[in-house]
Write a structure and sequence with these properties.
Elements (H helix, E strand, L loop, with lengths): L21 H12 L4 H4 L8 H15 L9 H14 L2 H19 L11 H22 L8 H8 L3 H13 L3 E3 L5 E3 L1 H24 L1
Antiparallel strand pairs: 1-2
Helix pairs in contact: 1-9, 3-4, 6-8, 6-9
Length: 213
């Protein structure tokens, strides 16, 4: 199989289609709302070594190549090829990482201090679902290391550790999160299912609060 021509490194692109099943629709909406993450497209960590980028790309390119009658998918093949064109180049990857890091912070950042909200209960619900979304994404991107420290959540969401401790306590009690002995956090199957069922409402609240900020 010949390597595809290198596409222009467009950093903002949306993909995804809704299936008939409600959960499939929610998953598609979660993927479609945000710009495509090239690391997610290749199913690798943002710290993956170059050899991992090459190895995973070859595997995915063979799987999604349009000539593959069993698993071929032209849309996925183009996306994987576009991601590889950026992440396989040290210079392009360095530029992309700057955008990627900022995008991750913007994606999870919650309401600014000046935002007007109805009550603390509504904010807390939003924080809970945002924490689940962060850990859900972490599991997808890096299944070999799906856990995160609370300090990482603090940086991504903009919420203090004291606030997040209450949020984490609630989610652990509901069995939506697991907390290991070294305090790392991981989303459970119940947590992922809960997030998928409530994602659209969370998204609407984020947009409303951002508009009022």
């Amino acid at each position: 199989m010949t390597h595809p021509r290198e596409p222009a490194p467009a950093l903002m692109m949306s993909v995804g289609r809704c299936g008939a099943d409600k959960k499939e629709c929610n998953r598609a909406d979660m993927d479609q709302d945000a710009p495509v993450d090239y690391y997610e497209a290749l199913q690798i960590s943002s710290t993956a070594e170059p050899e991992t980028v090459h190895r995973v790309y070859r595997m995915l390119a063979q799987r999604f190549h349009p000539d593959n009658k069993e698993t071929g998918n032209a849309t996925r093949f183009r996306l994987v090829s576009e991601a590889y064109a950026v992440l396989s180049s040290a210079e392009k990857r360095a530029r992309y990482d700057v955008v990627h890091q900022q995008r991750q912070q913007d994606r999870w950042r919650l309401v600014s201090k000046g935002a007007q909200v109805e009550n603390d209960f509504g904010v807390e619900q939003l924080v809970r679902l945002t924490v689940l979304e962060v850990l859900y994404t972490r599991r997808r991107v890096d299944p070999g290391q799906p856990s995160m420290f609370i300090i990482d959540l603090e940086k991504l969401t903009g919420k203090t550790r004291e606030h997040l401790e209450i949020t984490v306590w609630f989610l652990v009690q509901k069995k939506f999160l697991l907390r290991s002995d070294n305090t790392m956090l991981m989303i459970t199957a119940e947590g992922a299912e809960y997030l998928e069922e409530h994602y659209q409402g969370t998204l609407q609240n984020k947009r409303l609060l951002a508009k009022n900020a």
